[in-house]
Amino acid sequence: MVRGDGRTPPDWLIRLAHNCSDSACTTDAEGCRPVSRRSDAAERARRVQQARLAAHTLHARVSDPVAHTLAARTAFLSRFEREVDPDGVLDPQERARRAAHAKKAYFLRLALASSKARQKRNRAR
Fold first, then answer.
1. Closest by Cα among 50, 48, 41 to 121
2. Is 17 exposed, middle or buried (CB count within 10 Å of its CB: 0-12, 13-18, 19+)?
3. Is the dihedral of CA 98, 99, 104, 109 positive or negative?
4. What is the pLDDT of residues 9-67, one digit of tens each?
5. Cα angle 12, 66, 114; round to 5
6. Smallest Cα–Cα separation from 61: which of 1, 3, 2, 10?
């Protein structure tokens, strides 16, 4: 398991990410335990609970969570600048203006997809 910045996360976080209690485990998330035959709702609830556990464990061990996630936030936000100005020819103000619009469009697309998924799920009930 490698993070977006190319570094490997600590062992305890890898074990939490794939629900492994074996400290000697070296497998990735898919190879550690067999996939359960739970229902989709039960599996979703388990993943949410597991993610919450990992997040709280991480924040319990990190002294400055804002600084801890700074590199990830910077990389994510720089994506929009690269998207609107791949050759780096725009002046910084124009690049920032366009990147702000690209970011807003990205999150609006996510909101639209989420809304459609909720509508589809509610119709299926």
1. 41
2. middle
3. positive
4. 666 555 555 555 555 555 555 555 544 555 788 898 999 999 999 999 998 999 998 99
5. 85
6. 10
Distance (Å) of CA 59 to CA 3, 10, 46, 63: 17, 14, 20, 8
CA distance 103 to 2: 25
Kindly list the distances between the CA atom of residue 8 and the CA atoms of 11, 50, 59, 76, in Å, as whole numbers in the listed order.
Answer: 9, 20, 18, 18
At 5, is the secondary structure helix, strand, or coil? coil
Residues 6 or more apart from 18 whose CB is under 8 A from it? 27, 28, 29, 30, 32, 33
Cα dihedral: 24, 15, 34, 22 (round 10): 30
Closest CA to 28 of 17, 37, 36, 38: 17
